[in-house]
């Protein structure tokens, strides 16, 4: 498996398929028992390899990332990583401000305790702590788990904007078919430690029957089209969003003589 610079890759699969193991291999938290993992010019199994630079360039946000918070203030929590990399206090402070603004939090929040914030705000502080390390690759393992719909949409919008504006590589592990369908450019389906499908979301979701055999569904919009096709409607096999499905259905309705 190869991931190119600047890609936005989604990884899906049932529990136990190997998703979390894969992302921990990518920044050296785990080392492979077979084969190799190479990020840039660093191969994690090389003798005497220094993994600190790798962990700076590959940022990993775990599921329920707010459990990673520990400092007395938001600023101290976000600055912890950069300071451990050896940057000056002034540089760390600048990175704190930059990271907060990137995740959409006001600078006035810096001196607050992270444990006084809402769940969505805590999640964004945790992501800001990883962004302050200025990684070239950002890996997010179920970043919206447990959030309410508003918090979930806001976190995903920030991640999407980050990829679009900075061009960093983003790897998103998710159980939400809707989220990966509308966000990622490439989708990898894992099963029993291997890759079952690898392609664009539109290509992968054409394999609805294959996905069903391993307990995965398709986006709601694709399921609507599937049922219409079974009823004889001439609609595409895949829609990535409900708006796209609506467009396909309206066009098919007109072809069937349904009018405007």
Summarize this entry quickly.
With 260 residues, the protein is α/β, with parallel strands linked by helices. Helices cover 43% and strands 13% of the residues. It folds into 2 domains: 8-206, P-loop containing nucleotide triphosphate hydrolases (Rossmann fold); 219-260, no CATH class.
CATH topology of the largest domain: Rossmann fold
Mean of all residue-level pLDDT scores: 92
Strand-pairing-aware structural class: alpha/beta
Total domains? 2
Fraction in beta strands:
5-15%
What is the level-2 CATH architecture name of the largest domain?
A: 3-Layer(aba) Sandwich
What does this structure look like?
The protein is an alpha/beta fold. It has two domains: 8-206, 3-Layer(aba) Sandwich (Rossmann fold), CATH 3.40.50.300; 219-260, no CATH class. It is built from eleven helices and eight strands. It has a six-stranded mixed beta sheet with strand order 4-5-6-1-7-8, with helices on both faces. Strands 2-3 form a two-stranded antiparallel ribbon. Strand 7 (186-191) and strand 8 form a beta hairpin. The termini are far apart. The relative contact order is 0.14.
Features:
globular, 8 strands, 11 helices, 260 residues, alpha/beta, 13% strand, two-stranded antiparallel sheet, Rossmann fold, 2 domains
Secondary structure elements and pairings:
Layout: E1 8-12, H1 19-26, E2 38-39, E3 42-43, H2 52-57, E4 58-61, H3 74-84, H4 89-102, H5 119-131, E5 137-141, H6 149-166, E6 169-173, H7 177-183, E7 186-191, E8 194-199, H8 201-204, H9 208-213, H10 220-230, H11 242-255
Parallel strand pairs: 1-6, 1-7, 4-5, 5-6
Antiparallel strand pairs: 2-3, 7-8
Helix pairs in contact: 3-4, 3-5, 4-5, 5-6, 10-11
